[in-house]
Design a protein that fits this description.
Blueprint lengths: L5 E7 L5 E6 L1 H10 L4 H4 L11 E7 L7 E6 L4 E3 L6 E5 L7 E3 L8 E7 L2 E6 L12 E8 L4 E8 L8 E6 L8 E5 L5 E6 L3 E6 L5 E6 L4 E4 L2 E4 L9 E6 L12 E9 L5 H15 L5
Antiparallel strand pairs: 1-2, 1-3, 4-20, 5-6, 6-7, 8-9, 9-20, 10-19, 11-16, 11-20, 12-13, 12-19, 13-14, 14-15, 16-17, 17-18
């Protein structure tokens, strides 16, 4: 498997109930050297309260879960253009070999260290809805099933001051703007996933979040909690992938940081979903709710 990016912690209590979640290397070292003293500070809120009597740590990466079709990590697989100093390509870490590239040098996102917590992220910018130089990366070779589940660590930074919509993740089929920000039916801007019709989530903010979009049940989870759904879903498979812009990669760009993107070709169980969410939360200092 690829180099471990987290450690799966299996905890068993006196009644032999077991829970699993993923912690960062630093947290794993705390557990290993303190005999579990670090438990309270690392336990994801959805699992509290739980009093362990036995702890086990194992190396872990998203590819340990079957069906990982895309894994983009800002700390791995990023190629910097020597002429611009920005990101010319982002290579998948799941083993598919997919490479996302910028359509032009003027549209390359930048790489920012310690952008979300301690983690690096790509910074995308868009001045207007149809900014010809909005930063975007595209991977036309990506395919996926309609019953997919996508995870993104992102932070919107502009407050939508100059945009009417903003897209984090898209593909060229319908539904297309897979995870975005858009004007809500009641006014203001909300997180949104595209299913048969757009599913409106909660009002946006400029905090970092772990997003999970379930394209089978039509659910949107933010920081583990169900934010909106369920909604009716279509049967359209994924065709290509766009990070930071609309399906045509020409409008509705994203203003903010994107640190990691993981897509599975099936819907994960609740326990596997928590493994991915807790890994991302631990890595980027996001609190699960």
């Amino acid at each position: 498997m690829p180099n471990p990016v987290g450690y799966k912690l299996t905890a068993t209590d006196a009644g032999l109930s077991t829970i699993q979640f993923v912690v960062s290397l630093a947290a794993a070292m705390d557990f290993a050297t303190s005999g579990g003293v670090a438990w309270a500070s690392n336990l994801p809120a959805p699992l509290a309260p739980f009093v362990p009597e036995k702890l086990q740590l194992d190396q872990w990466a998203p590819t340990d879960i079957a069906g990982c079709r895309l894994w983009l990590d800002a700390d791995s697989g990023v190629t910097i253009d020597g002429a611009t100093g920005n990101v010319s390509s982002w290579t998948d870490q799941s083993g598919t070999g997919l490479v996302l590239t910028a359509p032009a040098a003027a549209r390359q996102p930048s790489l920012v260290a310690a952008a979300i917590g301690p983690g690096s992220a790509l910074q995308f910018t868009a001045a207007t809805d149809a900014d010809p130089n909005s930063s975007v990366l595209t991977g036309p070779g990506f395919t996926g099933t309609d019953a997919a589940m996508a995870f993104i660590v992102a932070q919107e930074t502009s407050g939508m001051a100059t945009l009417t919509a903003s897209t984090m993740l898209a593909d060229t089929n319908t539904p297309s703007s897979r995870l975005s920000i858009a004007s809500s039916f009641a006014g203001g801007y909300v997180w949104q996933i595209e299913v048969t019709t757009p599913l409106q989530g909660s009002a946006i903010d400029t905090d970092p979040h772990v997003f999970c979009a379930d394209y089978s049940a039509g659910n949107l989870y933010i920081d583990h909690a169900l934010d909106a759904g369920p909604s009716s879903v279509g049967t359209s498979t994924w065709d290509g992938i766009v990070v930071g812009g609309d399906p045509a990669a020409t409008s509705y760009g994203f203003n903010g940081y994107i640190a990691e993107v993981i897509v599975f070709d099936s819907i994960l169980s609740s326990s596997d979903r928590l493994l991915v969410e807790s890994y991302l939360a631990s890595r980027y200092d996001v609190t699960l709710t």
